[in-house]
Amino acid sequence: MNLKNLFFAALITITLASCRTSSFYQVYKVTPDDKITLKENHLVYEDENCKVSYDLWDQGGNIGFAFQNKTDKNIFLNLEESFFILNGIASNYYQNRVFSNTTSSGTSVSRGANATRSVTGANYLDLILTNRLSVSGSVGVVSSAGHTVSYTEEKIICIPGMTAKMISEFSINQSLFRDCALLKYPTKKQIKSKSFAQSNSPLVFSNRIAYTVGQSNTTVKFANEFFATQITNYPESEITETKADEFCGQKSSIQSKNFKNVSPDKFYIKYTKGQDTWKH
Questions:
Q1: What total of structural domains would you count in the chain?
Q2: Looking at the domain assignment, is residue 88 inside a domain?
Q3: Tens-digit pLDDT profile for the chain (280 aa)?
Q4: How far apart are the C-alpha atoms of 266 and 246, rounded to whole Å?
Q5: 178 and 85: one domain?
Q6: Spatial contact of 149 and 65, defined as CB atoms under 8 Å apart
């Protein structure tokens, strides 16, 4: 093979290598207990006082929930007695943390015939913005001001009547499940699934939630339980698609990548192919 043919062979090899899928997704299918039903694209638990809605679809799984008060009284959600439990290990929703929020602003004027002034501050969305305005003069001034507000995490969250609040704290799992039945980096034709019953599932998890209604001293407690029933590894091309966004019949000129077959009873872990040689 001459040098020219060798060059083209190397170029083709590099091109093919660059086209190979380097990102993969491990997708978990989850089964909830029989008190939870699928409604309006959410997993929903209801009792006479509240409705709790889940959408697990997220990186690592989102076990957070929307707690809706169905009554005309205040409901008090007790985070000190509410827990996320994964494979028998409990984590408190209340963690006694202190949060802080800092706001600052400043102005400056530079010397020169055509000086500029930079005005920096937080807008109503708490986004930091800087504007530059033309000024004339030769005065140099710099000033700044700011303040920090600290607040302690609440043990009890009040949810007014006929309203809802979002509670989000934990992801379900961030570690890849590995099994001889699952190829770690499958092609489209190599995709297989591993199925489980609750008794041998690698992930059994639940939310245990406690609340009171109005001035009642009676605490209502319930558990929403789930377990992983199926795990599948996919190349990125089999779980995502690129298409133009559409709104009111008009398609955007810009295309974006979206997930296919999204469901509230599934979640995923994204991973990339590195230098390892593991098959499974």
A1: 2
A2: yes
A3: 555 555 555 555 555 444 455 999 999 999 999 999 999 999 999 999 999 999 999 999 999 999 999 999 999 999 999 999 999 999 999 999 888 777 776 665 555 555 444 444 544 444 444 455 444 555 555 666 677 888 789 999 999 999 999 999 999 999 999 999 999 999 999 999 999 999 999 999 999 999 999 999 999 999 999 999 999 999 999 999 999 988 998 999 999 999 999 999 999 999 999 888 899 9
A4: 25
A5: yes
A6: no
Q: From residue 25, give the alpha-carbon distance in Å to each of 175, 207, 240, 262, 272.
A: 12, 25, 10, 13, 8
Contacts of residue 11, defined as CB under 8 A and 6 or more positions apart, other chains included, come to none
Shared domain for 172 and 240, answered yes or no, is: yes
Record the tokens describing residue 257, joined without a space.
């990548």
How would DSSP label each residue in 167-219? E---BS--S----TTS-SS--GGG--EEE--TTT-S-EEEEEEEEEETT--PP
φ, ψ at 80 (rounded to 5°):
-70, -25
List residues bridging with 168 in a β-sheet.
Answer: none
